User: Fold this.
Amino acid sequence: MPVATIGVFALQGDVREHLRVLTSLGARAIGVRRASELAACDAFVIPGGESTTMIKLARTFDLVDPLRERIAAGMPTFGTCAGMILLADRIEGGTSDQETIGGLDVTVRRNAFGRQVDSFEDDLDFHGIEGPVHAVFIRAPWVEEAGDGVEVLARVEHGPAVGRIVAVRQGPLMATSFHPEVGGGDRIHRLFIDLIRQS
Ligand code: GLN
Assistant:
C-alpha cells in the first residue's frame, strides 16, 4: 500500500508531537486547518489540548461538517485526550453548549480524574500490544459508558480510578484518554497505522 497521508488537527493542541511520531514511523503527516487539507488525507489524528477551544476553532474554520462526513464515510481517526472528547458522541462535564464531532459511540466524562489527580501516570495492559504501555494522563477524560460496538483496549491499572476505561476502538476509530504522543514510545501510533492498513 502506498504511504498513507495522515492529517493532524492543527488548530490547537499538541500537534507537533503527533507529527513527529507519525513521521518517524514512515507516514506522511500533515497539519490540517482547513477542509481542502482534510481532503488530501487518508486518516486523521485529533491531539490533546483543550476540547472547548478546539471545537470552537473547528467551527470557525468550517471543519466540523467535513470531519463528520469523512468519519461517517469510514476515515480512520485517532483521538488522544481532548481528541477523545471530540470523537465522543456524548460528553459529561462539558460546557453547556459544548458540541463534539462525534462518531464514537461512547459517553466521555471530561476532567474525570478530579483535581487531586489532575495529572498522573500509569502502566497499562493494552489490548494488541505486548508488555506494559506507559501512559501520561493530563486533566484527562475517561469513558463512562461504551456502546455495544465499542471494544475496550485499556483500563486504569492502579490507584483510585482503577478499572476506568481509558482506551477504546470502534471499527476505524480509536481513542485514548492519555497522551501516547507525549509519553514516549510509538507502539500506539503503530497500532493506529496497522488499523489504517486494515481499513
Ligand atoms: N481537559 C481537557 C479538555 O477537556 C483535555 C486535556 C488534554 O487534552 N490533555 O479538553
Observations:
- The chain has one domain: 5-198.
- The helical segments are 15-24, 35-38, 51-60, 64-72, 82-87, 187-198.
- The first helix runs from residue 15 to 24.
- Residues 48-51, 81-82, 85, 110-111, 138-139 surround glutamine (CB under 6 Å).
